[in-house]
Design brief:
FAD/NAD-bd_sf, mainly alpha, 63% helix
């Protein structure tokens, strides 16, 4: 549960930064790793069908 709590708080920081038009507190690689659509994007880049 500790890991999930840490991820939730980090996502809240990202969302708050996006909503207030402030710089996002992460580098681009970490932000991409937290993207909820990352699995779909990975499949699309490999040319696989997305369900």
């Amino acid at each position: 549960y500790k890991r999930a709590f840490a991820i939730r708080s980090r996502r809240a920081e990202i969302l708050a930064a996006q909503m207030s038009n402030e710089p996002i507190p992460l580098d681009a690689g970490t932000l991409a790793a937290l993207n909820p659509n990352r699995l779909w994007v990975r499949k699309l880049l490999k040319g696989k069908a997305v369900k």
